[in-house]
Amino acid sequence: MDFDFSDDQQQLRDAVRRWVDKGYTFERRRSIVEAGGFSREVWGELAELGLTALTVPEEHGGLGLGATDVMVVMEELGRGLVMEPLAQAFVAAGVLGKHADASVAGQWLPRVASGEALVVLAHQERQARYRLDVCAAKASKSGSGYTVDATKSVVPAGDAADAFLVPAQLDGKIALFLVERGASGVSTQGYRTQDGSRAAELRCQAAPATLVTADGLAALTLAQDAANAALCAEGVGAMEQTLKLTTEYMNQRKQFNTVIASFQALRHRVADMKMQLELARSMSYYASLKMSAADAERHVAIARAKVQLGQSLRFVGQQSVQLHGGIGVTDEYAGSHYFKRLTQMEMTGGDTLHHLGIVSAKMQDTAGVFA
């Protein structure tokens, strides 16, 4: 198989990398964190680069690109610790493009592509523990439309979003709805997360909603898989930069008048970090390639990738702190922010144990080796 990126993908990577290096410096990121963890200005810059339109179908004003292009972009955003939830644009494009009817898709996809509308997935409930089939939210018919009663947690940039994709029970089955933030009965409570980004609690009380699809579990699974594939790629970029910062520090820090990079025991630990990074990279590629597979195959593949990513994220982040010493956890040093982001990533979209359970439950007698 040919794993080389195309010229267009290389150009896309270069364009995003240049923006990250020049437009999203560590100082700018810190100012955004202090201002609340989300910047509409940065979101507009991502839209100007065409990134919000990346996976939107061409007939709706998008570029119509695929999962590999998403992976390329998210690696570079991870390298720069970009907090704005671009992956949510890919989630919205995938769900609305595949599951919404023509009128709903025609209304929202052009706005997603232009960056005018930030549509985010709001599905987590306190009692669900990462399970997608556990949903206490209720929907009911109201005239010619629907209303939703729901409480959702850790909604990405929830108090800045324009609309939410909300799963809710309808006639005993999970359906997926689109709820606008400005609709009556909708309230949000925003807060900063541990890595400095922004999230919110969402509450809907008889909020007017648009039905996206009655097959909500399939749409929700696609949304979570797309988000996790993007997260895997973002994690690879963040780990790559973490490793770079660590090796640069080790080549400067001296002990006994000798740079610590020359100590064999520490070199072995860096080699282990590099190995975990490359294991994660290969599984990130695997996850992106499997996004076009059948639903059941795709979901297990993403779980496999998330298991490896979870192990790698935690290992690389913790080893970086250990090799840096005290400076590795100071707020003024970029490395501490990479550590917090890597740690939060491991628990986002289902932690390692959750996805290990999915992999184990789907394992056959041959473990898939000879099947």
UniProtKB/TrEMBL annotation:
Residues 6-116 form the Acyl-CoA dehydrogenase/oxidase N-terminal domain. Residues 228-362 form the Acyl-CoA dehydrogenase/oxidase C-terminal domain. It holds the Pfam family Acyl-CoA_dh_N. InterPro entries: Acyl-CoA_Oxase/DH_mid-dom_sf, AcylCo_DH-like_C, AcylCo_DH/oxidase_C, AcylCoA_DH/ox_N, AcylCoA_DH/ox_N_sf, AcylCoA_DH/oxidase_NM_dom_sf. Its cofactor is FAD. Signal peptide: none annotated. It comes from the Bacteria. GO terms for molecular function: acyl-CoA dehydrogenase activity; flavin adenine dinucleotide binding. Keywords: FAD, Flavoprotein, Oxidoreductase. Belongs to the acyl-CoA dehydrogenase family. This is Acyl-CoA dehydrogenase family protein. It comes from Delftia acidovorans (Pseudomonas acidovorans).
